[in-house]
Amino acid sequence: MKRPTMKDVARAAGVSPMTVSRVVSGEAGVAPETAARVGQAVRKLGYQRNDNARSLRQKNLGTSTIGLVVDDLANPFYALMARSVEDEAHRRGHVVLVGSTNDEPQREREVIAAFTARQVDGLIIVPTIGGHGFLKRPMAGGTQVVCVDRPARGLAVDTVTVDNRAAAGRAVTHLLGHGHTRIAYLGDRFDIWTQAERYAGYLDALAAHGIPEDPALVRHELRSHPQARDALAVLRTLPDPPTALFTSNDLITLGVLDGLDHPAPLALVGFDDLPLGERLTPPLTVVSQDPVALGGTAANLLFSRIAGDRSAPRSVVLLTRFVVRGSGAMRTAGG
Amino acid sequence: MKRPTMKDVARAAGVSPMTVSRVVSGEAGVAPETAARVGQAVRKLGYQRNDNARSLRQKNLGTSTIGLVVDDLANPFYALMARSVEDEAHRRGHVVLVGSTNDEPQREREVIAAFTARQVDGLIIVPTIGGHGFLKRPMAGGTQVVCVDRPARGLAVDTVTVDNRAAAGRAVTHLLGHGHTRIAYLGDRFDIWTQAERYAGYLDALAAHGIPEDPALVRHELRSHPQARDALAVLRTLPDPPTALFTSNDLITLGVLDGLDHPAPLALVGFDDLPLGERLTPPLTVVSQDPVALGGTAANLLFSRIAGDRSAPRSVVLLTRFVVRGSGAMRTAGG
Predict the structure, then answer these.
(1) How far B242 CA lies from chain A's nearest CA (Å)?
(2) What is the pLDDT of residues B33-75, one digit of tens each?
(3) pLDDT at A54 exceeding the cut of 50
(4) Which residue of B has its CA nearest to A80?
(5) What are the pLDDT digits (tens) for B21-37?
(6) Do A79 and B73 touch (CB under 8 A)?
(7) What pairs with residue A245 in β-bridges?
(8) CA separation for the pair B69, B73 (Å, rounded)
(9) How far apart are CA A123 and CA A112, in angstroms?
(10) pLDDT tens column, A241-274
(11) Which of the residues A86, A269, B65, B277 has an alpha carbon 20 to 30 A from that of A19?
């Protein structure tokens, strides 16, 4: 059977070939209903973006691109992930477009629109909390998408995450095992998937020990080092303050370290390892993720999709390591 | 006067317009002599890459790109710099292509070739030690280049660096001021410009105090945490071992911290601050660079060049801060 052409899709959808071209390239200026009709025709006919055009482009440009969209490239966790993606892409002769979203859906849309307009072969994204319907059009045109760190709501694509909930549960259980019952949770925005999972793990561990949640000990929405430091200061003023802390990412851990020892030391387990964490007094006990493995796994999935793998979307969960060094074993004041 | 066209350049150089197009786009496959002839014609006629073609491309693609080429994106210093460049580019509607070189000239050429083939409007590069003659062709075609962190040998372009030599001298003078005369230098590859500058600063400070250099105390070529750790172990076995260390980048500082306290503590001043450096025992005294300012300054220079600034190349030197926290004030064994 002859491969369907752009003209075939145009005929089936009742639009011009130029409109089809616009839709599959992810360009703006096509009415949503029209785009949907084109998308249906693309799927029905099994159309793939013109390989001649693509190889011509590759010949002209010497190389292809993939896009990488992270929360914040300045965060060492995402920087390590980015380097890992870049190494995989370089090995395969691709170059990487990179962008940060700050977890802002608007910036995410802008960055991804810029990337798809440049006809990236694929996208690796750390999705924001926003909807991702806008990705359906470039995906219908053949752009491959893989999510890493978090799934994207309503998007059935390959996704690589870690065992956030179980790992957080283990961390809090470690604190409970050292006699703590007043354990504070300090987290980032609750609507970020990883944060919701880690908070659920915190609640799991408390529930397994028959300890009811005390909302006074739970702080969400900590977006920066100073906000985390200030949240700890407030927790310290409670009539029945915490004796231990679970911090749900590296920035928050850095922030609470500022107020940890005064007036009295508190036990601490953090999610994410920190450089020099093992050299603190006491050394830091953490849940350690491997951003290089996350990035490498996501890149491998993406390149197998680009190579033509059309099997059902996969969800890959990588295991974290729980690194016990001492900071979670501080005794309670009365213990 | 009419603006010169690609055809005018082709006529002046005695080649086809297609060859001119190849040269100004930085594509491979043009003989060096031919490319040089085209470059001369471009400069003589004051030809600029076809604005119609460019605006057509911008209309098609919705956005322009700049390329960022760093040593290692996984190094927090370069990650912060990259985020800063990305923010400036995003603000101006550009997207960023990013690549790491590992300080390998071959990989640098590959990455930059991939970027120029994709018609980036400009490049911000942390140049490797390799030659950069290969950049002259895309530059003749209108691609703007700015160097950051280090100058590129033989390339007269805007360059943003810090006061490496003076800052290293001040750091070593601090150790001398605390009575140390056996001060070891632990550095990365000597052929990297920043490293040579910092080593020169080390020698300046010793000379100003009338202390001759002892080659046994100088270790170059430390490329990793383990290599730095092992180099310190060797220094410790000297008949007259060092009582203080100057480490010339963050990775080397991390490496020597492993062996710093045993069998006896040594004084230490490092180039580059580290997260949590202020929480070590003793807290780390460092030369602190501002990678956000480096990246932001480089991006501003690049975008002013893209906007048409053709003034003479600038060399911008940003000042570092010397952050005294304690680790440089350890007394000598006999002191």
Answers:
(1) 23
(2) 777 777 677 666 766 554 334 444 444 444 689 999 999 999 8
(3) no
(4) B74
(5) 666 655 556 676 777 77
(6) yes
(7) A184, A268
(8) 9
(9) 8
(10) 999 999 999 999 999 998 898 888 999 999 999 9
(11) B65
Tell me the chain A residues in contact with residue B95 when contact means C-beta distances shorter than 8 Å. Answer: 97, 99, 111, 114-115, 118
Give the whole-angstrom CA distance, residue B149 versus residue B290: 11
- CA-based angle B63:B66:B71, to the nearest 5? 150
What six digits make up the tokens of B272? 């580059």
Question: In Å, what is the CA distance from B286 to each residue of B47, B231, B267, B305?
Answer: 48, 20, 12, 34
Give the Cα separation of A245 and A33 in Å (integer).
51
Cα–Cα nearest to A316, from A170, A148, A168, A197: A148
Superfamily of domain A164-290+322-329: Response regulator (3.40.50.2300)
CATH of A64-162+291-318, one of 3.90.190.20, 3.40.50.2300, 3.40.50.1820, 3.40.920.10: 3.40.50.2300
Q: Calculate the CA B34 to chain-centre distance.
A: 32
ipTM of the complex: 0.77
Q: Among all chains, which residue has been given the structure tokens 């460019």? A: B54
User: Which residues of chain A have a CB within 8 Å of the CB of B259?
Assistant: none
For B126-194, give the DSSP string. Answer: ---SS--GGGHHHHHTT-EEEEESSPPTT--SEEEEE-HHHHHHHHHHHHHHTT---EEEE-S-TTSHH
Cα gap B80→B75, rounded to integer Å: 9
Please give the model's pTM, rounded to 2 decimal places.
0.79
Greatest CA span in chain B, whole angstroms? 79
At the fourth CATH level, which superfamily is domain A6-49?
lambda repressor-like DNA-binding domains (1.10.260.40)
What's the pLDDT tens digit per position in B73-117? Answer: 998 899 999 999 999 999 998 999 999 999 999 999 999 998 998
In terms of residues, how long is chain B?
A: 335
